[in-house]
Amino acid sequence: MAKVHIINVSPGDCTIIEHNSGRLTGIDICGGNLEVRQKAAAVEARATGLLGLLAMENGQSNGNGNFRMCERPSNPINYIQTYGLGRFFRFIVTHPDMDHMDGLAKLHTEIGFDNFWDTGARREAPDFDGFYRYSKDDWDMYQRLIANRVDGVTVLKKIAGDYFPYASKPDKDGKAADALYILAPDKELLCDPNENDDINEASYVLNYNSLGGNMVFPGDAHDASWEYVIENNKYLQGNCSFLLAPHHGRHSERSYDFLDFLKPKLTVLGCSPSKYIDYGQWSRRGLEILTSNQAGNIVLDINDGYYDVYVENDDFVNAKNGSALGSMFLRNEQGFRFYKRISK
Questions:
Q1: pLDDT-flagged residues of the chain (< 50)
Q2: How far apart are the first and last CA of the chain?
């Protein structure tokens, strides 16, 4: 069955979709230049899980504390290699901010991808002089990609309303598409984001219409993007099984009307300092959240009508779900712990 991996990167986004077709989709990358562990972390998480059980039984945690997983980020390239996910059929950078393409050059060299989606959004290069946490190699790779100068990679210039083979419609042989739909941007949202000082309004907003429900991946989409999505996608009203929080969950002086519209069954908030996240926007609406800081890496195992959530961090599951030792054996192929089931 299909799976969605939400990689624990800090700060930024990286999502991987394993489709029923066997094709692999990547959406954004961050932390691809970090030298970090993966297998060792999984072993450590399982080894410390029993300690988490003891702490929980002694009343030391209720699942809402600081589990500090954002201090233990994963390198997505290492993650892909460790778990044998293979080469990408398509890779998508939602918008050209460096925290969404940190490791792009290495991803192309060490993993590879056959297709690249380009909204057409353009911006000036960051200032890489002096101390800067990101690599100019990644910016240069992005520039080569959007100029269609990378051998073996097909560049697809696609925006909202485009339906095309392998993504949103069957191929010429009638083989099923991967149920990926572009919700934004349209042409107007792409108008000179540099002049408006808001490249986020040119961010891809993507819907993966999975068997487990509609899953929305919005990059850093801001208010104008959401207004467009709400106006043009009425089928999503109250019909969202999963949302990756825009802009890693940062409040960014934004409207939260998109939460009233989507009513997501589960939202994952990426790694951002707590002072920048307005958790109350979800709690006052009665909407459930899961944070990367709690869970570490997250896998959604998709079935017909539901998906199961597996997380890297045993301590969080022990604190949140109780101390039944039997649940220690409910693990996925990565060795991640079962957290809960979300029905469509």
A1: 37-62, 195
A2: 16
Burial zone of 34 (CB within 10 Å; 0-12 exposed, 13-18 middle, 19+ buried): middle
- Summarised one tens digit per residue, pLDDT across range 178-197 is 999 999 999 999 975 554 55
Amino acid, res. 277: I
- Domains belonging to the chain, first-starting first, are 3-343 (3.60.15.10)
C-alpha 336/C-alpha 69 separation (Å) is: 14
Which residue, among 233, 220, 333, has the nearest Cα to 270 in the 3D structure?
220
List all residues 6 or more positions away from 307 whose beta carbon is below 8 Å from its beta carbon: 4, 210, 212, 213, 241, 242, 300, 301, 341, 342
d(CA 100, CA 76): 12
Q: How far is CA 307 from CA 93, 282, 342, in A?
A: 25, 21, 5
Q: Which residues contact 283 (CB under 8 A, 6 or more apart)?
A: none
pTM for the full predicted model: 0.90
